[in-house]
Design brief:
The protein is an alpha/beta fold. The chain has ten helices and 15 strands. 38% of the residues lie in helices and 23% in strands. The longest helix is centred in the first third of the chain and has 28 residues.
Length: 317
Amino acid sequence: MTRFDEVEVFLRVVERGSFIGAAAQLGMPASTVSRRLKLLENRLGVQLLHRTTRRVWPSEAGQAYYQRCVTAVAMLDRADAAVRALTQEPEGPLKVLMAYGPAILVIEPELARFRALYPKVQLHLTLDNHALDPVEHGFDLAVRHGPVRDSSYHLRRLGNAPLHLLASPAYLDRAGRPSHPRELEQHELLAVRSTPGPLSWPLEGPQGSFELKLEPVFVTNDVIMAMRQAISGAGIMMSSQCLARHRIGSGELEVILPEWRHRDGLETVALFSARATQDLKVRVFLDFLADAFARWIKGEPPAAPAQVPMADSKAPT
């Protein structure tokens, strides 16, 4: 065991806030984590961690040591990545967490091209609509919609798609076509929820702003399910036109109040740890994601392999 092994264990314990969480991430027993932390504290002659039965947190000395270790490890990672980039191409397993909608509609049509570009990368794509912690669950990166409140991760914005009101012509023929957002209160509404809390649609249009508090007849965490309900005539939903482009073109869905749209739009971001930025396969996949989402929002066809640039040795910003 090297000093670096002790430091890595210490960093994971501080970041996860528990021996069990660190052990799960490192793939070793919690007893081994505890033993290595004790060896590190004995070697330094100082207590690095405060411990209770419920949590672990750094002492004043431990916080100072953590900040210096993070900086040192980041420098080592950058040095390793710079050397590997001179002679290597992206390879190895890449574990990605993504919601069903963007995975199926945006990424799936591009996967053959990604494999052609980077044949040595084994992509492990997990589809889940829950906002899981990517590091805690063993992912290299996660793709999410909406604002991200966890500042402990790096993020790369992949695009912002305008959100509009959609319904089937059959539903609108039956229930009527609203002429102002306030009339939506008299309609059956279909909501997509990814996090707990009140549901609302903050709208902006030519007459200013209007926030609709929702009392939906149907709520799901999957936009594809909501869209199927809208197509069946169940009510009005909020979605991006690029997501529903083919359904609108086929006449299955119709844009309502086209001059009104969601105030914030649909923000899509990729989340990843500071350490993941040094991994070449993570960086090329981030470039691939950004290119795929930009084309999808613009309504362009999937890119040919030569059109997706290879990432250089720089970390993403």
